TrEMBL record:
This is ATP-grasp domain-containing protein. Gene3D superfamilies: 3.40.50.20, ATP-grasp fold, B domain. Keywords: ATP-binding, Nucleotide-binding. InterPro entries: ATP-grasp, ATP-grasp_fam. Residues 118-314 form the ATP-grasp domain. The lineage of its organism: Bacteria, Pseudomonadati, Pseudomonadota, Alphaproteobacteria, Rhodobacterales.
């Protein structure tokens, strides 16, 4: 059986190694593609494919289909432009190729935009942070005044873009903070209201930003596997300093179950929550593997392997082993020599 992961993040290489290290993955041939021939997936994959760079969505989808046919692929896991491949999913099916997309394009649009996601959570009654959208300094100041006067930010405020990954653009706003001191500390996410206002006023940015209630409690990252809207495996990582503690039950996992059903999700996904006032509050959900997914797999459930096995129909979801809670985990990277 041949499985093709299209261009994704660095965790694609981790997923391939996890599949390969398990005896159940021995019969699966893994193909990976990327626009960068030196990307880590080129070394992790059994076969590497160089993707086209500057092409339209339609041209990219057609290239994927023809490549999958030529290479006799059984399962395509689209990580780049999934909506474009979804648009011609019937042609993949007619060619005998399974297309393993997380959700329909209209769902992906909601999950991609954190403001639309917040509105959707309010509709279905899943706790999410209060927020206001803004673009300009005037809109920012008005949003701050509204949230403060209405008591919607008891633990402070933070900002982030409505669309983004890796926490880019996220900052915790502080009334009294020395920005120079903050700059001297690695990984510091605090910024004064004064500096943020000055930066916003001087910028030409034209994107939707979100002013949000800051949540001070413990953060959880839930890696889960869903099959046609049903949660079949989930592990929560509770972030505790330099380490993370694995959980296999609790409110964050129940939220994953609710959202997998609501959005009809399939494949590997991830969501983040934080506690506030004793309640688990959803921050966001991503229809893809997380960067820490391999830590969750230390619970005893190989998420990428079972994702592939169930998508190919080689195993039933009922056979997925129960994950073990309680372990403390952390990431470790190893250096490597780069050869041309």
């Amino acid at each position: 059986m041949k499985v093709w992961y299209t261009k994704g993040l660095s965790n694609t290489a981790h997923a391939m190694r996890l599949i390969r290290q398990d005896p159940l993955g021995g019969a699966i041939r893994l193909l990976g593609s990327h626009v960068d021939p030196a990307n880590a997936v080129s070394a992790a994959a059994d076969e590497f494919i160089l993707e086209p760079v500057s092409v339209s969505d339609a041209a990219y989808a057609e290239w994927c289909l023809q490549t999958a046919i030529e290479r006799e692929i059984d399962l395509v896991i689209p990580q780049r432009r999934p909506g474009a491949l979804w648009a011609i999913r019937d042609r993949f099916f007619e060619a005998g190729i399974a297309l393993h997309a997380a959700a329909a394009p209209e769902v992906l649009r909601i999950l991609d935009r954190k403001d639309l996601f917040g509105i959707e959570m309010e509709k279905i009654g899943v706790p999410s942070p209060d927020f206001e959208t803004f673009r300009t300094l005037v809109e920012f100041d008005e949003a701050v005044e509204r949230m403060r006067s209405e008591g919607r930010a008891p633990d402070g405020l933070c900002v982030k873009p409505a669309v983004g990954i890796f926490g880019s653009g996220f900052r915790i706003l502080k009334d009294e903070v020395c920005d120079m001191d903050r700059m001297m500390v690695l990984d510091n996410l605090e910024i004064s209201f004064g500096l943020y206002r000055a930066v916003l006023a001087a910028s030409r940015q034209d994107r939707d930003m979100m002013l949000m209630r800051y949540l001070p409690g413990p953060e959880r990252s839930v890696d889960f596997l869903a099959c046609n809207g049903t949660l079949v495996a989930a592990v929560a990582r509770v972030k505790e300093g330099a380490t993370q503690r694995l959980e296999t039950e609790g409110a964050s996992i129940e939220i994953a179950r609710i959202l997998a059903h609501h959005f009809g999700l399939s494949g590997q996904c991830n969501l983040q929550t934080r506690e506030a006032d004793g309640e688990e509050i959803i921050l966001e959900i991503n229809p893809r593997m997380s960067g820490g997914m391999q830590m969750s797999c230390l619970s005893g459930v190989n998420l990428p392997l079972w994702d592939v096995l169930t998508a190919l129909g080689l195993r039933d979801a009922s056979e997925i082993p129960l994950p073990r809670p309680g372990s403390r985990v952390r990431m470790r990277e190893e250096p490597a020599i780069v050869t041309d």
